[in-house]
Each structure stands twice: as C-alpha cells, then as structure tokens.
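Entry for manganese (II) ion complex. Fields follow.
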Amino acid sequence: MRRVAVIPGDGIGPEVIAVAVRVLQTVGEIAGRRLEFVEFDWSADRYLRDGTTLPADAPAQLVQEFDAILFGALGDPRVPDNRHAAEILLGLRFGLDLYVNLRPCQLLDARLTPLRGRSEQDLNFVILRENTEGPYVGLGGVFRRAMPEELGLEVDINTARGAERILRYGFDYARRNGLKRLCMTDKSNAMPHGHGLWQRVFQRLRTEYADIEARHLYVDTLAAELVRDPGQFQVIVAPNLLGDILSDLGAQLVGGLGLAPSANLHPGRIGLYEPVHGSAPSLAGRNLANPMGAVLSSALLVEDFGWRREARAIRAVVQAAIRTGQTTPDLGGSQGTQQVGDWLCNELIRRGLPED
Ligand code: NAD
Ligand code: IPM
Ligand code: MN
C-alpha cells in the first residue's frame, strides 16, 4: 500500500489534480495495487480564512506518513504578493530539501510543436533544475519602501555543494538512462561570482564523467539553440531561476504548459510531483484546463514507486488521447477537463497494463 498526500491548491489546481487522482486510482485498480490519498487544503482560500500557509510540522508529517506528494498549483489574485504560494511550495521544496526539479520535455505528437519540420525524435530532453538555491531562498530586503529611492535586494545563493549535487544527479541521470549528452547552463559571463562557482564545479565533474559528452552554453545562447535545433539536447542542468524560465520554453516547444510534468526530488526521500504550469486563474472553474501535465506528473510518481508498467500505461493513454484529438482547447480539441479524464480512465481499463 502506498500513501499519497494530495495538495490541490488554487485555480485550476483542484480540477487537474482530480483527474490525476482518478487516473492513479484507475491504474492502481487494473494493476491490483493499493493507493490511498489524503487531501490537504493548503491554498489561498485557507490562507485568507485563517492565515495558515504551510503548518510548521507539515514537512515532518509528510515524510513520516506518506510515500509521495501530488501537488496542483498555487497562486491567487486575492494574494497579490503570492505569500502563501512561496511559503507552501518553496517551503516544501526547501523544507524537504528536494534539490532536483526534473522537467521532461518530450514531444508526444509532431503536430504539437510550433517548430517547423520537427518530429518526436527531435524533441526529447530533460531539464534538471537546481531547486533549493539561487534567488529563490528569500534572502534580501527592501529599503526605503515606497519612497522614490526605494531599493529591493534579492540575494542569489550558489554553493559548491548545491551545484555539485545537481550536476552529479545530471551526469548519473544520463548514465542511468543511456544518454550521451549533458549541457550545463549559466550566466557566468555576467555573474562571475555565483555562476563562476558553477563553472569550476562543472569542470571538475566532467573529467570524472568522461563517458558523457559535456558542454556548457550561456543561458541566452541555450534559449536560442533550443528553438533552432532542439535535437542536440538530452540532459540540461540549470541553476534554479534559469531552469524555471527554460522549462516554460521547453514546455511550449512540445505542446504548451498544459502538458508539462515535473518531479521535485531528493534521491531516497519523498518526492513532490506537480504540473509545471500555474493556477491559470482565467481558466479556473470552467472545465477548460488541460489535465495532462498533472496526469503525466502522476506517471513520474508511480515510476518512482518502481511501477514501470503503470507509468508506461499512463503515458500511452495520454499519447493516444492526443493522437485521436481527445483534448482540451489548448491542444486544439473540444473536450473538457473532466471529459479528458473520463477518456483516459476508460482507455486505461480497455487496454489494461502493457507487457513488461
Ligand atoms: P500559468 O501557468 O498559470 O498560465 C500561463 C498560461 O498558460 C495562461 O495562458 C494559462 O491559461 C495557460 N495554462 C496554464 N496551465 C494550463 C492548463 N493546464 N491548461 C490550459 N492552459 C494552461 O502562469 P501565470 O499566468 O504566470 O501564473 C498564474 C498564477 O500561478 C500566478 O499566481 C503564479 O505565481 C502561479 N504559478 C504557480 C506555479 C506552481 O504552483 N507551481 C507555477 C507557475 C505559476
Ligand atoms: C514553477 C513556478 C514557481 C517557481 C513559482 C510559482 C514560485 O513558476 O514551479 O515553475 O518559480 O519555481
Ligand atoms: Mn515556473
């Protein structure tokens, strides 16, 4: 039996997570596996009601009582400074020390890419985003608030340990998956201190992993190359903020934010699985959100349980839905969020589990 903590969150989060949970329940049933879901209401509603963001004992409780966390999205126009989202999502990433943010960018159907003449083989890379450092740590402050001379300071933290562990994860990931190429990106030409450190760690590690073809691109060049010739990339390792931006670019290259999954990981510990997209307030409550990013995130979740056939089954029905046009409007279809969920679950039952 595996226990999954579910944090639906704000906006379209609850709608896409409801579909992901149904898909997980269905795949569990056809595989004869027991899954238990417990929902947590950490969200803008809860914050506005009683001030709760992430309870202090939440990280410890999640570690003790659960095997995985499934997360929707946070962000609500009623909380303009995004405080609850930072405290809950970043609180969990930092509190659980989930230093890997794994964001696969895989083209499931050639019709989905905005790039001319590209097919499934040309777009299949993973972004490994450092997830516990950079300007995300919340160090800084504001001086002379609301005065004409106001100053805002955000400290960009980079540590040798932080850079080394995500780069090492990247090299090991490449080896584990039979991949040959790794690209490390930074902005060390403009940020010689913090990103110069990444360069030094990278140069040291690449000699240790001589079997992997390792290269470096400044992030601006990488952005351009990803559009010009995405087929050259297999594994991309990026500092936190750069990885955030690149992963929306990568998502768009393979069909848009509605499709992109992610996993926040620390090997050997509980992981947090979430679509890359946000709470999309303009779509919320309208049965318009694409649930596939959340569903593909749940495939990453079961894969980390070691349930490989279940993960393949989920990916196969998502791909089949795309191929046959059973999609929400962002992918050109005319189905609602829930109807896509119905189709995916029926198709899972119809097909059963794939052979090993
Ligand atoms: P967003 O990802 O919510 O939306 C960007 C665009 O993509 C919008 O046009 C939206 O309609 C579309 N989109 C996103 N998800 C979609 C889906 N599943 N199906 C169809 N279309 C989809 O980003 P934003 O508008 O910049 O942010 C909205 C809020 O979400 C903000 O408060 C932001 O801070 C928050 N946010 C949260 C997370 C997270 O919780 N992990 C991630 C990104 C943004
Ligand atoms: C993401 C989001 C978050 C991030 C925001 C909501 C803080 O954009 O998960 O990509 O920047 O990490
Ligand atoms: Mn983002």
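NOTE: The longest helix spans residues 13-31.
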